[in-house]
Each structure stands twice: as C-alpha cells, then as structure tokens.
C-alpha cells in the first residue's frame, strides 16, 4: 500500500519556518500589541506590493472582507447583487445580511466561473422587472482560476455597478499579467488555513487601488471610527485582523512564491494525466490558475461516487466543492425564487456541476508523482 495523500496539508509547511514563527509569535506576546500591532501594517504593505495594487487593508476574514466592501458602497435593501450560484455560501450570505438581494448567475461548465452571457441576461431581467436596482457583481475566481474580469469590469462600467472580486480561493493567480487584486474596484482575500495563503486561524484582506475606498475600509473595520478614536462617523463593525495572524502570514509570505510554483506544477501534472478523459478546469488565454483546489468534472453522480470510493480505498483525500448550488440551499431558496416576478431563469450548469465535481489533493507539500498517482486511481475507476 502506498503512502496516503491528503487533500490539504496545513502542517508540512510549519517545519520549514517553525523557528521564524516561534520568534515572531514570541515577539507579539512580549509586545502585548495583540490588536493593531505594527505587523498588521507591515503585512498590508507586503500584500499590496505582491498584488501590484495601491492599498491593502487587513480584516478579520474573507467573509468580513466582502461585507466591509459592500458596506462601503452602501449596498442594502432594494439592491441586486449578481453572483455565481456555484460558489461558497459566504458570497451569497453577505448581501442578505445587508438587506440586499443576491441574484444567482449560472457558471460555465468549462471554467466553473460566472457565465458572462447569463450575467447579461439576468441584469436585463432585473432591469425589466424594475423592483431591484442592479448594484454590484461579485465575481468569484473559483478554485483559483480568475473569472473573466475584462468582461465583468466592462459590464460594471457600462451599468454603473460595483465590481467586487471574491478572490478568497485565488490569491496569487494572474490574469493578463496582472495579479488578482488590481482587477475590479476591490478584491476580497481570505486567509482561512486551507486557502493559498492561509493563517492559523481566521483572517482576510481587501485590496484596492482607490484611496477613498481604502480609507473607508479602515474605518468600517474599526466600528466606523473617524480620524480620532471614539469619533464614530458611520456604522461599522469589529472586522480587524489580529497581530498574531498578521505575523504568521508575514512568515508564510516568504514561502509563497515557491508554493504557487509548486501548485502550478501539480496542476500541470494532473492536466497531463487527466485532460481528455475527465473534465478539467479550462484555463482561458491570459489566465494563470493559483490552484487553491484541483477540481475535475465526471460524467455523473454515480461515476463520482465510484471514483471517490476508489480514492478513499487508496487513502487519497478528495472533496466535493460544492454538493448543492446556492439557490437550492434552504436559507437562500426563497430569496432566489422571489428576486424576479414569476421566478428567475433556471441555472442548469450550476446544478449539473454539483453532481459531477470532485476535488483532488492539492497542496504545495505533495509531489508531482503524488498527483500522477492520484490521477491514475481516478482513471482506473472511471
Ligand atoms: C473561503 C471563502 C470565503 C470566505 O472566507 P472566510 O475567510 O472563510 O470568511 C468567501 N468566498 C469564497 C469563494 C471562499 O472560498
């Protein structure tokens, strides 16, 4: 029996930077500056430089990054926020928390990302319906692959809408030689431990080139405070990134380029073994996948169960992201049904993908031989 291969490994990296981590954490403990320590600002500078954008604002999670970005635009009741039906729940939860209405858009079977033609149709339908104001598009770079930001930005410019990049799974990806982070009006990152850049707890950031938005984000993450403390200028929230997570991320940033390169090699090894036999996530011209996950598409739910059982048998990890499209989730179904009079158009690709997709082991501390072996087990079980 060969060695197990985990879907994620959030510990292997620690051995490489353990001394630096221990030293950094001890320094924060000694300083006592657990909130707003200088490490937060240092991380923000490095994140902005890495992404090639003007401003980075550390926040408490990817979900809070999305929320702060939408609060800054004043998104609320009467607003339609367009987002893919095939994504993590947080993308849809935030507009609802703010009283706005998510309008689910179908995705492409090849890239798993938002379908631009369907986005256009749904914007037109919301305008015709007349009850909601098209207000924002949240593009998700699913599994690490950039969405079609050229098209999303053009639509948002034409319609006067806010373009928000949910890059929670895709930090490190590029599109047309620009890193994600400088596309869209703002980009939300998550540092959840299994993301491409993960903390040892919750964390997130907002990236933007707009100085006014950056200033608003800083205010909103600290209860809407103004220039002086306890001058509350707007309704905000407690959405800060804590100092220990910031210093952990600084230690991890030293490894990030090498990790992204390994993720790319693993993606290429999987593609070489699997393309043509199963559906692999297609990379559009000019895009580079950060491979937060490596996800294949099988013929149907039965084929997926068979393949997943074969992987489990060989102690190879796998995961289903996502088993249910968001418009079928009990919490969202009624909002979905009511977003347009008479009910919105169906979302057939999102529904089909939920029966077909399977994510294979993907983390920078596995080898290309591991990827090839996992791919071999998939092929043998087809
Ligand atoms: C992880 C994730 C989020 C939320 O990030 P948290 O840090 O867990 O709050 C949002 N959107 C997508 C697409 C995600 O994968």
What would you call the shape? globular
User: Can you give the mean pLDDT?
Assistant: 97
Given the structure, what is the number of helices? 12
Q: In sequence order, what are the helices and strands, one letter per element?
A: HHEHEHEHEHEEEEEHHEEEHHHEH
CATH class of the largest domain: Alpha Beta
Proper CATH architecture of the largest domain: 3-Layer(aba) Sandwich
Bound molecules: pyridoxal-5'-phosphate
Beta-strand share of residues: 5-15%
Q: Give unreliable regions as ranges.
A: none
User: CATH homologous superfamily name of the largest domain?
Assistant: Type I PLP-dependent aspartate aminotransferase-like (Major domain)
Feature tags:
alpha/beta, Aspartate Aminotransferase, domain 2, Aspartate Aminotransferase, domain 1, 2 domains, 7-stranded mixed β-sheet, 12 helices, 43% helix, binds pyridoxal-5'-phosphate
Would you give an account of this structure?
This protein is α/β, with parallel strands linked by helices and 382 residues long. It folds into 2 domains: 11-106 and 113-252, Type I PLP-dependent aspartate aminotransferase-like (Major domain) (Aspartate Aminotransferase, domain 2), CATH 3.40.640.10; 256-381, Alpha-Beta Complex (Aspartate Aminotransferase, domain 1). Helix content is 43%, strand content 14%. It contains 12 helices and 13 strands. The protein has helices at 14-31, 38-51, 62-73, 90-97, 116-129, 149-159, 211-221, 243-274, 301-313, 330-337, 348-356, 368-381; strands spanning 55-59, 79-84, 101-105, 133-140, 162-166, 174-175, 178-179, 186-190, 204-208, 279-280, 287-288, 294-297, 357-360. The strands form 3 sheets. A 7-stranded mixed beta sheet has the order 1-9-8-5-4-2-3, sandwiched between helices. A hairpin with a 2-residue loop joins β6 (174-175) and β7 (178-179). α1 runs antiparallel to α8 (243-274). It is globular and about 65 Å long. It starts with 13 loop residues before the first helix and ends with a helix. The model has no long low-confidence stretch (mean pLDDT 97). The structure holds pyridoxal-5'-phosphate.
């Amino acid at each position: 029996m060969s060695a197990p291969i985990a879907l994620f490994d959030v510990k292997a990296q620690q051995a490489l930077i353990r001394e630096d981590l221990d030293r950094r954490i001890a320094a924060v403990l000694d300083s006592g500056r657990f909130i707003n320590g200088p490490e937060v600002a240092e991380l923000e500078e490095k994140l902005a430089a890495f992404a090639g954008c003007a401003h980075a604002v550390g926040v408490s999670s990817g979900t809070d990054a999305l929320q702060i970005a939408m609060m800054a635009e004043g998104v609320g009741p009467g607003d339609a926020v367009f987002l893919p039906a095939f994504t993590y729940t947080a993308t849809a939860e935030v507009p609802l928390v703010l009283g706005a209405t998510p309008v689910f858009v179908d995705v492409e079977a090849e890239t798993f990302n938002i379908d631009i033609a369907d986005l256009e149709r749904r914007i037109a339908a919301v305008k015709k319906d007349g009850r909601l104001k098209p207000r924002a598009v949240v593009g998700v770079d699913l599994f690490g692959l950039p969405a079609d930001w050229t098209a999303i930005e053009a639509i948002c410019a034409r319609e006067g809408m806010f373009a928000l990049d949910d890059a929670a799974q895709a930090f490190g990806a590029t599109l047309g030689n620009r890193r994600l982070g400088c596309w869209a009006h703002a980009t939300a990152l998550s540092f959840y431990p299994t993301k491409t850049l993960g903390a040892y707890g919750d964390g997130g950031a907002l990236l933007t080139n707009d100085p006014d938005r950056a200033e608003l984000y800083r205010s909103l993450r600290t209860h809407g405070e103004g220039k002086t403390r306890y001058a509350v200028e707007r309704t905000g929230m407690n959405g800060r990134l804590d100092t220990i997570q910031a210093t952990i991320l600084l230690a991890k940033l030293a490894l990030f380029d090498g990790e992204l390169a390994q993720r790319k090699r693993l993606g290429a090894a999987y593609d070489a073994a699997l393309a043509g036999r199963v559906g692999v996530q297609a990379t559009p011209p000019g895009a580079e996948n950060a491979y937060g996950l490596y996800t294949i598409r099988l013929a149907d739910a039965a084929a997926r169960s068979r393949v997943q059982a074969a992987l489990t048998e060989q102690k190879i990890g796998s995961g289903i992201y996502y088993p249910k499209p968001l418009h079928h989730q009990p919490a969202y179904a009624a909002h979905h049904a009511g977003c347009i009079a008479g009910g919105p158009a169906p979302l057939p690709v999102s529904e089909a993908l939920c029966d077909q997709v399977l994510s294979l082991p993907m983390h920078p501390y596995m080898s290309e031989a591991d990827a090839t072996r996992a791919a071999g087990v998939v092929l043998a079980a087809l």
